[in-house]
Amino acid sequence: MFKNLKILFHQGKQYIPDVTNVNVPGIFRGRPIITTAKVNEEKLIEICPLQAITSSPVAIDLGKCNFCGECSFAFPDKISFTKDYKLSSNQREGLIIKEGDTGTIELNPDVIRKEISQLFSRSLKLRQVSAGGDNSCELELNACSNVNFDMGRFGIEFVASPRHADGIVITGPISENMAEALQICYDATPDPKIIILAGVDAISGGIFAGSPALNRSFLDKYNVDLYVSGNPVHPLAFINGVLELIRKRKSS
Amino acid sequence: MNYTTVKNNERIQLSAIPELEYELFWELNVLSLMSEEHNHCVNYFGFPYEEKIKLICCIANDETHTIYVSSSLVNTSTHYPSFTSHVLAFEKFEREIHENFGVQYNNHPWLKPVRYARNRANQDETIATYPFYSIASEELHEVGVGPIHAGVIEPGHFRFICNGEQILHLEIQLGYQHRGVESLFLKKDNLLQRTILAESIAGDTVVGHTTAFVNLWETLCGFEADWHLQFSRTLALELERVAVHTGDLSAMCTDIAYQLGSSVFGRLRTPIINYFQQWCGCRLAKSLIRVGKTNFVYTEELAQILLKILDAYEPDFIEMCKELFRLPSALSRFEKTGVISQDDAKKLGTVGMAARMSGINRDIRSSHPHDLYSEMQHEPIIKHHGDVYSRAQIRREEILQSIANIRKLLQNIPAYSPSTLPLSSPTANSFALSLVEGWRGEICHCAITDEQGALRCYKVKDPSFHNWLALGLAVRNNEISDFPISNKSFDFSYCGHDL
Predict the structure, then answer these.
(1) How high is the pLDDT of residue A126?
(2) Which residue of B has its CA nearest to A127?
(3) Do A135 and B152 touch (CB under 8 A)?
(4) At the top level of CATH, which class does the domain B181-498 belong to?
């Protein structure tokens, strides 16, 4: 008993008090900023291994970006990555950062379905489906529930059965071999339900985009409620994205 | 000579690998090489060659630090005697060759699909039609688990045949994670894309697989990584081991419902992976390792931060371990659960922790050292009981050993001298092999180039490829409620297996 108390005492305070506003240690590559500096755009586009950069105006699609930072190493005057970990949008185009954009990425409250804020704002149970995920996003989603990030304090939890869930979180590029299981899981989740795509592999296929071993037709059928960017998603990015989704109200 | 001998990270001409008649090839590998105690198969694969299939078998000798490579040409119309009928360790490899190319074996005991790869020979078989083993009996029942598991983990299907609560048989069906990694290595012609692909083979072993890839690629190009690059790869491998082992101890505590251990080990992992973020910007070390260069030069300042983290980590870790490893309720779940005998482990050809837990000395860091391991005189940690407890103990001791290794490494941080020469392209008509001891065990990447120096075959082998069958055998006669802790204590990779 005393030993346990001693161990507890030695842990100190581990949780992050305010997950919406914290300084991430080190050189975390979050939301990029693209300046209006003139560079060889062809070379810049070529350098991106995931074809996330487009020209006129120069833009980075965070739904494809691997956050490897290679573009910022080659063109430091043009592209820099900030430590801003709010990397979620409820519209696919919201993840595209254009030249000169310096504002944070925010969810568009007008397209959040009414029942999300009505039903899920204080309790959201999620079923996670790894569909070809490489276990990096899965590890980070697990970390969301550990004592440091403690997502459970907001009533957001991962549950074992889709029947107990309010929505599904998909990681991975959705392999052909997993497509049917994903559909069955979604069908087993009671209405109303949400879909969250976590990580660039889920959002765009990432490095696996175009592989014949994938089957992404599931995404053509349903509306995605939240896209969380990252490879892997940072726990702070995920928690903040979900919090914004369930708490944000329409402006009117 | 019926085989050629290479060392880890050595390039040879493809034509230097002797091509044997299948009968001789069989005799060499099965009767001669695999009968030696210190030899084991590190890779055995095929690739299309002049309208036939060329099989390449790589047997490592852990004593002489060499690898014996031999080859044979086969076709799909003949039935061949299988290696597996004599040496079980070839079981998965032959199933893979059969699935991918339709090579027929006449006495393979278990010729079932491996992963339903996209380019498999028989497209009529799909993952929904897997032929499960079953026993007709009114007293037995079957339990199916997955592909989606209860926790946030990767998919795989487990089919148990139980007598009451007792597991008689477990069959593990994988393939759900198949993304076509090996084909993509050939398709992508950009080096950075291939590196990112290597980072994505298994997101929990980013450093392990990426190191195997860059070492292999540098070997193909004749590039010698300088001391600093080797230093940072070695350091990252040891750090990854500390991070994942700590996380696994946390998950094992979760599976026996020991909340304190779960929370404490869980939070102890955080500063270690956050350190990767401080070093390279990603908690799981994606973007850290690159071919022929580094974007994140290791500095004295980074070393000081790491030493502080380790100083804080170690006493808390040891304190928690002392409590866990004396707690009767934890020990009663760990001890004699999920046992693999040394004899079985040898037959299965397990590698990494799954071998060392059963008293087999198998560790690439000492047997085929790469990067700075050749100077470190690594002594593998060996346990003998082959149960969950042994696997927990190995983790505890390997963490402390890795921390000691890291401290030693940090005493001498080499300066980085970037290569002034541009990286040349891979040598044509070559074969190269790279072995790396990841935290799970031995990772093996093999590459073969064509006349133009383009990739002709890229073969990835995750340690889990050898090891999954061990889980199936370990849980026999256990209660089904002990399955989660057995599974977690092995912690095999789904995506590394499915590719």
Answers:
(1) 94
(2) B152
(3) no
(4) mainly alpha
